[in-house]
């Protein structure tokens, strides 16, 4: 049931969406904060490529592992309670990262950050799905992701500047404090009428698990799951992990320069998530847009793999275009949402998110293993190592497109469900 809109509804909606997007922004910072400072972590802590890949991917493994219990908790206890519990875990993870002195300490911190950040897209989306009519879901999902993606923007030049100015440890202490502020806003702004009663609230654990299986048995589930697994991982592969080392090892750029360059795809991604969501409303279809974005992203990765080391100007153009092309996730989320009955929204969306985060975990872990196959004198990885990673990701995206294209019906957005 959707809440009626009163005279003060527009201001209340802006405050609600702003609060939910703000805490998602912080979680996005925690998610993608390894890429720019990876060379610094490698030098200070002593990490090889495989350990850097594991360090970044540990967040996504923990995030993915939390999704099934999270979906059950969202449907049973509501999004607000889930967000407040997760904020405490994220706070502990940021503190642990700030003081860690060993690879295992950093990895443990990333696991805590992954668990703590696991709900800040799915819980708001479940809340939007329950409170607002279906025709507004894609727009709200796009706004949530667009504002949250500012967190990815902050892990580029701003993180580079902060790390150079006060150090990466002090930066993470500041982020831990910001988590507390955002959690307080959630506690104040998200009211009971924003987190309405829902059919799953009285279910037993067994009934909740039965709902998970019901979603997993849907005919469209597996192709959608595979598409989720390869969609977001492409963007994070560049901005959140190997973009920084690639710019350092291949071009010789320092902390500030690589932060500035990685800001380009972060900015274009923010623009892209809004543009792709608007395109869905204009065209009235999900599947063609998802296939267009995925195939174009794969083509861009393949182009970089073939060219290898474009001139700096063209590299900047490539980064900007790639960030925009890879921003079609709101449309994919809305496509998955269109198959879910109201009582399974929380579990269904979190199952799809297992694909998103689990796929990113696998991609990042395997990419580190792949890069370590190449000789690295002085811990500087050769251009061919990065070309192999970009080509492998392009192939994975194209295979997912094939499964999605053949296995998922062209389900038009419902304006009345």
Gyration radius, rounded: 20 Å
Question: Helical residue percent?
Answer: over 70%
Spans where pLDDT lies below 50 across 5 or more residues: 1-8, 413-417
Strand content: under 5%
* Largest β sheet strand count, sense and barrel closure: none
CATH homologous superfamily placement = MFS general substrate transporter like domains
| Principal-axes shape call | globular
CATH class: Mainly Alpha
CATH topology: Growth Hormone, Chain: A
The secondary-structure class comes to: mainly alpha
Q: What integer is the average pLDDT?
A: 84
Count the DSSP helices. 19
In total, the number of domains comes to 1
| Secondary-structure element order, N to C | HHHHHHHHHHHHHHHHHHH
Please give the CATH architecture: Up-down Bundle
Number of strands: 0
Explained architecture:
It is globular and about 55 Å long. The protein has a single domain, classed as Growth Hormone, Chain: A. It contains 19 helices and no strands. The model is unreliable at 1-8 and 413-417 (pLDDT under 50). The protein is mainly α and 417 residues long.
């Amino acid at each position: 049931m959707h809440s009626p809109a009163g005279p003060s509804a527009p201001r209340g909606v802006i405050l609600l969406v702003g609060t939910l997007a703000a805490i998602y922004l912080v979680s996005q910072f925690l998610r993608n904060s390894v890429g720019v400072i990876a060379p610094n972590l490698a030098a200070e802590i002593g990490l090889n490529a495989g350990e850097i890949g594991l360090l970044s991917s540990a967040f996504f493994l923990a995030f993915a592992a939390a999704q099934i219990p999270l979906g059950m908790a969202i449907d049973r206890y509501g999004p607000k309670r889930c967000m407040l519990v997760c904020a405490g875990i994220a706070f502990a993870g940021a503190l642990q990262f700030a003081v860690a002195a060993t690879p295992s300490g950093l990895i443990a911190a990333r696991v805590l950050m992954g668990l703590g950040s696991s709900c800040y897209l799915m819980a708001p989306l479940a809340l939007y799905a329950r409170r607002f009519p279906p025709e507004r879901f894609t727009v709200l999902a796009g706004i949530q992701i667009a504002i949250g993606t500012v967190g990815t923007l902050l892990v580029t030049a701003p993180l580079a500047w902060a790390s150079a100015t006060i150090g990466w440890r002090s930066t993470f202490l500041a982020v831990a404090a910001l988590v507390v502020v955002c959690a307080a806003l959630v506690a104040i702004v998200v009211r009971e009428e924003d987190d309405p009663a829902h059919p799953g609230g009285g279910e037993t654990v067994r009934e909740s698990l039965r709902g998970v299986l019901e979603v997993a048995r849907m005919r469209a589930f597996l192709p959608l799951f595979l598409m989720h697994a390869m969609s977001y991982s492409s963007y994070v592969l560049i901005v959140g992990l190997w973009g920084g080392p690639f710019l350092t090892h291949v071009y010789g750029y320092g902390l500030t320069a690589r932060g500035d360059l990685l800001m380009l795809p972060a900015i274009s991604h923010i623009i892209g998530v809004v543009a792709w969501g608007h395109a869905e409303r204009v065209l009235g279809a999900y599947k063609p847009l998802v296939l267009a974005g995925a195939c174009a992203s794969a083509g861009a990765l393949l182009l970089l793999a073939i060219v290898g080391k474009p001139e700096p100007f063209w590299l900047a153009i490539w980064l900007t275009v790639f960030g925009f092309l890879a921003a079609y996730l709101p449309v994919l989320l809305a496509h998955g949402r269109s198959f879910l009955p109201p009582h399974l929204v929380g579990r269904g969306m979190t199952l799809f998110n297992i694909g998103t985060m689990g796929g990113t975990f696998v991609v990042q872990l395997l990419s580190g293993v792949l890069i370590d196959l190449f000789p690295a004198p002085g811990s500087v990885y050769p251009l061919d190592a990065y070309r192999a990673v970009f080509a492998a990701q392009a192939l994975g995206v194209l295979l997912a497109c094939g499964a999605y294209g053949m296995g998922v019906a062209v389900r038009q957005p419902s304006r009345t469900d």
